[in-house]
Design brief:
Largest sheet: 5 strands, mixed
Subunit structure: Interacts with the 40S ribosomal subunit.
Helix content: 40-55%
Protein name: Translation machinery-associated protein 22
Shape: elongated
Main location: cytoplasm
Strand order of the largest sheet: 3-4-2-1-5
Radius of gyration: 27 Å
GO biological process, one term: formation of translation preinitiation complex
Family: Belongs to the DENR family.
């Protein structure tokens, strides 16, 4: 990436370190004056007649904010879970739902189509009770889905995938 873009990439510190290692003359040329300007900004004060000359320094580093934002998103991804839930409907019928794949950047519609083609069953994207998208696959494919997710999307860690089995409650025999 050209040096001009480093400032806006969100990884300015990495660019600085790389440039310092590879070409120290260029580093001094590009970032040498930055220290003097930064020190001048830190020492500068804005005078306001009404506030009796309060000292204020204005230091905003956009790249640091971007790096922090990327780090927060990464932590959120690592803390989030993918749930594969098998739900019994009637006698021998069941449905498998997959929730949480969208957090890892998976296109749910494409994934649903892939599951439908692979397992020769109905598969769609639907909203759950909380209003969030999930994939609904008709049939009991929880083990195969787990393997398929790990194979097709390596950015989804295996330790973040949970399998849940939900059985339908039977009526008590005394109420018959």
């Amino acid at each position: 990436m050209p040096l001009e873009y480093c400032e806006f990439s969100g990884t300015q510190e990495k660019c600085k370190l790389w440039l310092k290692e590879k070409d120290e003359d260029m580093y001094e040329e590009v970032y040498g004056g930055v220290k003097a300007v930064t020190e001048g900004v830190e020492k500068a004060t804005i005078e306001d007649e009404a506030s009796d000359k309060k000292d204020r320094t204005v230091v905003k580093d956009k790249s640091a904010k971007l790096e922090a934002k990327l780090e927060r998103e990464n932590k959120k991804k690592m803390a989030s879970r993918v749930l594969i839930k098998r739900i019994e409907r009637t006698k021998r019928k069941c449905v498998t739902t997959i929730y949480g794949l969208d957090i890892f950047g998976v296109d749910l519609k494409k994934a649903a189509k892939m599951f439908a083609n692979r397992f020769a069953c109905g598969s769609s994207v639907a909203k759950n009770n909380q209003g969030q998208d999930e994939i609904v696959v008709q049939g009991d494919f929880s083990d195969e889905l787990l393997k398929m997710i790990l194979k097709n999307w390596p950015n989804v860690p295996e330790e973040n995938i949970d399998k849940i089995e939900e059985k339908k409650k039977k009526k008590a025999e005394s109420q018959v």
